[in-house]
């Protein structure tokens, strides 16, 4: 194996709940009505995709671009107050990066990936947002782009994910997938059955060994 590619939300930062709370509050403030399926539907979507979803499915009364920009601005405020780094995540990435080239392949917008890297100072040479791709997760696009920028074949990459759509994306890219299931939004059992499951991100270095 030649590289390790990490998801961000739910793998390195405990942010899925933050995203959910911010989107729900934003929708309520702008004429939307939250639906039970909205949270899981948007996990893995690219920024343009979830912006459009907030308008078309949730009923936010503005354009998709305005909705996504508004939510991202609120997320930046939340991160400025507290960046919820998962315990052991920074140490794990440092350990893994001493043995493999590493990358981040995330549905988060580039500005929020940069906040994470600036705060943690992690040595991650390639960070890709699905904003740069034609489609977000479960499409494999963001993983394929990350592998390409690392200069390695997708089949020679490990991918580390937490959500159903993220796991599907990494599997579709042909990678060897390790799951650290999100405790707040557990992945589908049939998808977990296709990957190796870890109890925490801190277990990754030993799993790769």
From TrEMBL:
InterPro entries for the chain: HAD-like_sf (IPR036412), HAD-SF_hydro_IA (IPR006439), HAD_sf (IPR023214), PGP-like_dom2 (IPR023198)
Pfam families linked to this entry: Hydrolase
Gene3D superfamilies found in the cross-reference section: HAD superfamily/HAD-like, Putative phosphatase, domain 2
Protein name according to UniProt: HAD family phosphatase
Organism: Lentzea indica
Species lineage: Bacteria, Bacillati, Actinomycetota, Actinomycetes, Pseudonocardiales
């Amino acid at each position: 194996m030649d590289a390790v590619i990490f998801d961000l939300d739910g793998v390195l930062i405990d942010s899925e709940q933050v995203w959910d709370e911010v989107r729900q509050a934003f929708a309520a403030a702008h004429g939307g009505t939250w639906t039970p399926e909205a949270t899981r539907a948007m996990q893995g979507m690219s920024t343009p995709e979830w912006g459009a979803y907030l308008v078309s499915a949730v009923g936010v009364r503005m354009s998709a671009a305005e909705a996504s920009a508004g939510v991202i601005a609120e997320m930046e405020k939340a991160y400025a107050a507290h960046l919820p780094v998962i315990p052991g995540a920074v140490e794990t990435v440092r350990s893994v990066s001493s043995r493999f080239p590493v990358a981040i392949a995330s549905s988060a917008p580039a500005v929020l990936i940069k906040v994470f890297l600036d705060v943690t100072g992690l040595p991650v040479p390639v960070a890709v947002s699905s904003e740069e791709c034609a489609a977000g997760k479960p499409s494999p696009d963001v993983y394929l782009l990350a592998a390409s920028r690392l200069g390695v074949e997708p089949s020679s990459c490990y991918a580390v994910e937490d959500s159903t759509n993220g796991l599907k994306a990494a599997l579709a890219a042909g990678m060897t997938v390790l799951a650290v299931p999100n405790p707040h939004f557990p992945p589908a059992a049939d998808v977990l059955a296709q990957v190796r499951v870890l109890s925490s991100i801190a277990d990754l270095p030993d799993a790769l060994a």
